[in-house]
Specification:
The complex is a heterodimer of chains A (295) and B (384). In chain A, 33% of the residues lie in helices and 21% in strands. In chain A, strand 10, helix 5 and strand 11 form a beta-alpha-beta unit. In chain B, the strands form 5 sheets. In chain B, strands 7, 8, 9, 10, 11 and 12 form a 6-stranded antiparallel sheet that branches. In chain B, strands 1-6-2-3 form a 4-stranded antiparallel sheet, covered by helices on one side. A 4-stranded parallel sheet of chain B has the order 14-16-17-18, with helices on both faces. In chain B, helix 9 packs across helix 13. The two termini of chain B are 42 Å apart. The chains are: A alpha/beta (295), B alpha+beta (384).
């Protein structure tokens, strides 16, 4: 098993005819993902890479190809609309890669998304999801650094997740599923949502949680770890050297109060029993120690 | 994006929120005329993107137009240094001349985007005119917090709840509730991330006014607000940050001495933390971005080199769409145009075309230490 995506995933790509959408759709196909459809309004009836049918609407694509997951590369002004279109078409998993969606759009869209249960929206502003054991990648992460295994990874970041995965694979530690929940303050899926899925996944035996300054989702995760989660968790929080009040790249990465600070998050996670990864250089090592022979 | 107080008050006023009578002035003579036109006692306020103006001499209460002229002359064209600006301060190009109001009560109201609430949160307190972070930390019971549903919008009962919570008089309940409702409409319509009214005052004659106003716009929404985008004042930013913004580089100047160039915001923060481990601390946050080309990398390198505090540089690239050889070429371009500007550099490259990138750097004349991981990077920064 794994979470969110596996060998049964039939991926649809919204914005497949765009530069980024096309590039990553191809990379996903090369990795082994079953990309069954693309959607670009006005480009319906054409073929992507000579093999993948392109549709004008998500609904048409689902009806024809039975796709069950979507990866969104639609530009920011239209990405909120694309998310709702995917949810309304009944897709089970929707990963919105797009960065820079107006936050007021996200607030309305996520209010709608959280009011239903058939679609799980990951992101926006995220690298997506990958299950190495099923050769299924729904995202922009470099596939080659991953290795099938038992560690679930959940992170607010993109390249830092690759760093974490690179360290794990370098030590021979494989991953069950890696989920990037994104760097925006208002998003579809939280740490706790993913931790619940990892808890119920037989294949996942340990978890790496990568958080950063801003918001209080890491503290919520700590509460959940303490009360509900038996599996071992290693946690890294970055941004200890960031000053208050300044946004560090990610829209959500800004210290606006006590809970938003790295040390407060680290304290909460540590008190919840998570193994704290002391520096970004020690992700692999900490997980290895935590898992012992099991890794 | 930050804007000035006079711009914020214009937006508020257009949205029906009462503000003190005021005129913006770019010269001392204009300030004098403004004071004469407003009449009586006025306040001259330096227009800068920083808090703490009062203590820094950026707010003066005066009785006559001649005094207003003098106060404005003392501010205009100077650098104002407050606890938020750093030692070099920020330039004062305009002053706001406002009627001096007879204040009976100073209250606090703000609206922010709250990720945990997935929406807009209204905060209000009777402790107006104070540092609200401090109030929140020491007396959280004095800060009301109300979540607004994006579908319903700001409900009338929520306005009444805040007004009664602020202990205003019966006649002021409606004006306070009305102001909050209008603030929410303004917040929504203009895609704001912050409105802070501190203080929200009740005057001796019973008026309810936004006496000070801070508004932040969302950068990601500016494409649909051409009028607001024009309010940008890059002069108020750190010079290097303004330069970075022009090239679409995400850069924040910090006070350490290790310059950092990274792709990805999370990895950039992680890299900053690694420099601290080496005992030095980051001179900056810098995310060069996923789609950077050689020129953008070069521009990032020039920005780092322009910071006099930088003693060493750590470059950490996890190549994906961004290819490591492109990064190397960008760095080498800058080292050729200005060899003496380069600091000792530690480079860690992984992913797409990293062998080529490393080879280009190793074979160059640049003084560069190539490392394989972040542990080695920290060691190299320590000079081991």
């Amino acid at each position: 098993m794994s979470i969110l995506v596996d060998k049964n995933t039939r991926l649809l790509v919204q914005g497949i005819t765009g530069k980024e959408g096309g590039y990553h759709a191809k990379k996903c196909m090369e990795y082994g993902t079953n990309v069954v459809a693309g959607v670009t309004p006005g480009k319906g009836g054409t073929l992507f890479e000579g093999t993948v049918p392109v549709f004008n609407t998500v609904e048409q694509a689902v009806a024809t190809t039975k796709s069950n997951a979507s990866m969104i590369f639609v530009p920011p002004p239209f990405a909120g609309d694309a998310i709702v279109e995917a949810v309304d078409a009944g897709l089970g998993v929707v990963a919105c890669i797009t960065e820079g969606i107006p936050v007021h759009d996200s607030i309305k869209v996520m209010r709608y998304v959280r009011s239903q249960t058939h679609s799980r929206v990951i992101g926006p502003n995220c690298p997506g999801v990958i299950t190495p054991g099923a050769k299924c990648k729904m995202g922009i992460m470099p596939g080659s650094i991953h290795k099938p295994g038992k560690i679930g990874v959940v992170s607010r970041s993109g390249t830092l997740t690759y760093e974490a995965v690179g360290q794990l694979t370098g030590l021979g530690i494989g991953q069950s599923t890696c989920v990037g929940i994104g760097g925006d303050p208002v998003n579809g899926t939280t740490f706790v949502d993913v931790l619940k899925m990892f808890r119920d996944d037989k294949e996942t035996e340990g978890i790496v949680l990568i958080g950063e300054i801003g918001g209080s989702r890491e503290q919520e995760a700590a509460e959940y770890i303490k009360s509900e989660l038996k599996k071992p968790v290693a946690a890294l929080i970055v941004g200890r050297t960031a000053p208050p009040g300044r946004r560090m790249g990610h829209a959500g990465a800004i210290i606006t109060g006590k809970a938003a600070r790295a040390d407060d998050k680290i304290r909460a996670l540590s008190a919840a029993g998570a193994a704290i990864i002391p520096t970004p250089a020690h992700i692999g090592r900490t997980v290895k120690e935590m898992m012992g022979v099991k890794a | 994006m930050k804007i000035h107080e006079y711009q914020a008050k214009k937006i508020l006023s257009q949205g029906g929120v009462p503000v003190p009578k005021g005129i913006v002035a770019a010269t001392a003579a204009e300030a004098k005329d403004a004071a004469a036109s407003i009449g009586g006692k006025v306040v001259v306020k330096a227009q800068v993107h920083a808090g703490g103006r009062g203590k820094a001499g950026g707010v003066k209460v005066v009785s006559t137009p001649a005094e207003a002229e003098k106060a404005a002359a003392g501010m205009l064209g100077r650098q104002l240094v407050t606890f938020q600006t750093g030692p070099e301060g920020v330039p004062v190009r305009k002053v706001l001349v406002e009627e001096a109001i007879a204040i009976k009560r100073e209250l606090y109201a703000s609206m922010v985007i709250d990720g945990a609430a997935r929406g807009v949160v209204v905060m209000a307190s009777e402790a107006g005119g104070m540092d609200i972070e401090e109030v929140a930390e020491k007396h959280p019971e004095k800060l009301m917090r109300i979540v607004i549903d994006p579908v319903l919008g700001f409900m009338p009962y929520q306005g009444r709840k805040v007004a009664y919570g602020l202990n205003v008089t019966a006649e002021q309940v409606r004006p306070v509730a009305d102001m909050l409702s209008k603030l929410y409409n303004i917040f929504q319509k203009n895609d704001l991330t912050l409105i802070e009214i501190n203080p929200l005052v009740v005057t001796e004659d019973g008026r309810v006014l936004a006496a000070d106003a801070k508004i932040n716009l969302e950068d990601d929404s500016l494409f649909r607000h051409a009028d607001l985008k024009e309010m940008d004042d890059p002069e108020q930013m750190d010079a290097l940050e303004a330069q970075a913004a022009k090239y679409g580089i995400s850069y924040v100047k910090l006070d350490g001495d290790i310059g950092c160039m990274v792709n990805g915001a999370g990895l950039a923060m992680a890299t900053m933390d690694v420099t601290r481990e080496a005992g030095a601390g980051p001179a900056n946050f810098l995310d060069v971005g996923g789609g950077a080309d050689e020129e953008k990398v070069a521009q990032a390198m020039r920005i780092i080199n322009s910071d006099p505090n930088v003693k060493k540089v750590l470059i950490n690239i996890f190549g994906g769409i961004l290819k490591c050889d492109i990064v190397a070429r960008g760095i080498l371009k800058v080292s050729e145009e200005n060899p003496s500007g380069m600091r000792p550099t530690v480079v860690r490259m992984l992913g797409t075309n990293n062998e080529e990138g490393r080879k280009l750097l190793a074979e160059s004349r640049l003084k560069v230490t190539l490392v394989n991981n972040l542990i080695e990077a920290a060691d190299a920064l320590k000079g081991r």
